[in-house]
Amino acid sequence: MTQSPQSSQPDHPARQGADTVLHRFGEWARRTPEAPALITGDETVPYAVLDAESDRLARDLTDGNLPANGLVALALPRQSELVTALLAVLKAGGVYAVLDVADPRGGRRQLAALAPDLLIAGHADAARLDAGKGVRILHPGRGADGAAPPPPLPGPPPAPGHGGAAVLFTGAATPRPVPVGHALLLAAYEGWAETARLTPGDRHLFTAGPDTTPFAAGWTRALCSGGALVLPETAAWLPGQVWRAVRKAEVSVVHTDPAGAADLLLAQEPPASDIAPFRLAPDAELRSLRLLAVSGDRLYLDEHSAFQDRLRPGARVLNVYALTEAAGTGAWFELPQLPRPLDGPERISLLGTPFPGCRVRVLDGQLTVDPPGGGEAIATGDLGVLRPDGLLEFGGRAADRIEAEDGTRIDPYPLESEIRAHASVGTALVARVPVAGGGHRLVAYLSPPHGLPAEVLPDTARLREHLKGKVPADAVPRAVVRMRALPRTRAGREDRTQVPQPPLLLAPVAGGRGGGKYGGVRTSGTAGSQEVLPLGSALGCGAPLLGLLALSFTSVIWPGSTDLTGVPNPWAALFWILYLCESLAFGAGVVFLFSGRGPMLAQRRGRGITTAAHLAIAYLLIAWWPQDNLYRLAAKQDWPRQAALVYAFNVPLMIAALVVAIYATRKPVSPFDFDD
């Protein structure tokens, strides 16, 4: 099955000649020299200034004997300097590649995969990247290897090459370099220009790291259409900065991933705590925003609709299926493409229709994309279907297939989508993890809907009940791990390689069904099962038995302490009830000492204070039986014994009460199994 766009722009008239994205930028620099090109906080760089600065750096590069189509790696934390540098590389006839300076380990891997002719980086960033002696380094404001740059030369800069333009990195957990030519970079821009209806007045903000495809190829959407790039003042956008920047700079187009879109649109107004279906009101502070382009990972229809609700009428939300090999193009979807409302929006992620110039084919359930401007077909490794309504639907990734407990291979995407159908689940990943005693088990990693606490997430029993009859029994996860947010790559894709190992996951008892988060368990290294008696049952059964036993031994341990001879009723009866209560409290304290720590740890108030409070409560219950019996046998004038009893019992009782008070007022730690 094949799908092509219904319409596409004709090739630019100069396309057969020397037309490139660099020429498109140059045209805007000549037509609107004073228009803003880069906006960083309160600082604005006009097109004319950006053009001149990139000219000077381009001459530095050519004077430094950069070969034609020479590869230049860029490691600059200030994105305004980065944009200047990549323009300069293109003007010098080179090929640019942006490195990850936020994560030196990732940047070193990228640098090793490139083997560039030149590295443009500051002294500190070059040191962090551990650039070898074989890499020539140009520091900003200096010549190659630190020499002072020559003065700017008069005349036009050298013409760019017509082969390679950039090396982009995929958004996988281990990024892979992909060379991109001038023709593809321009064709991708033209596809975006038609799809997004780009205008010269647009101000674009990219939340992804500059080394990722959305920015490394997407800068053209702003600077080739006469728009402006809104950049962070630091190396990357920090939480909360994007929303403020959209307001302050009146951003009209935001390019982000699903998590970034939720932070921007849903963080300011979380949904109702009862998790009932809701419709959010538009955020008046984001009235400048006319387009939200979401890429990097699957976007479900219910999320898509929630984002749309938060934008002003007429604004658009695009779900973009963007491939690095296609320079950030592929397919796109927005809600008006739907011929009718669909049931189960929390289970469906639509890719829509191809970008102009692209063609998408579904072969044996896998997606193949022909990039814009021609070129070899791209085997994406992603799964999908062409629906009867003509829209492409995402079906997961072939590389994510995992082995179920019966040995069959399953696609986790349908299972994760079914888990998302639970009203209390925002995002879900299912992974195969090793367990104690050997073997593997399926584990569901869950995070709540945006703005809701972890307590709403289902435990293992509730999740299994939700999935009963909907998925094969061997595909049902054995355990649940609650997280504040699922790990993602810098490109915004959920990162299955970084999910944490559950704190405790033991092999399940055959045929057993237990309580607790992970269901029935058996102790590692033992053959039999270990059933854990609930605390309430333990107290109800054990405390009376131990209490009566203690009462019967009272006269043996402390002869005469409970002798009520000569005490008239009803006082004798009241005293006997007191002795019974003390004995029962002793029994309850002993039971709590051995079975109360686990339930207290579940309150997540800290291991240290929980241990102290557990012992304090046990002491408060146990101490009354020996204390009162010893007091009744002590003579009132026996001051040494009276003092010993006070300091042995009364003072510790005060300390124990203080510990319990601290524990009761201690704020519980995060209920998530993992916060990051």
UniProtKB/TrEMBL annotation:
Residues 140-163 are annotated as: Disordered. Signal peptide: none annotated. Residues 27-374 form the AMP-dependent synthetase/ligase domain. The chain crosses the membrane at residues 532-553, 573-594, 606-625, 645-664. Residues 148-160 have a biased composition (Pro residues). Keywords: Membrane, Transmembrane, Transmembrane helix. SUPFAM superfamilies: Acetyl-CoA synthetase-like. Residues 415-492 form the AMP-binding enzyme C-terminal domain. The keyword Membrane applies. InterPro entries: AMP-bd_C, AMP-bd_C_sf, AMP-dep_synth/lig_dom, ANL_N_sf, ATP-dep_AMP-bd_enzyme. PANTHER family: LONG-CHAIN-FATTY-ACID--COA LIGASE, NONRIBOSOMAL PEPTIDE SYNTHASE PES1 (EUROFUNG)-RELATED. This is AMP-binding protein. The lineage of its organism: Bacteria, Bacillati, Actinomycetota, Actinomycetes, Kitasatosporales.
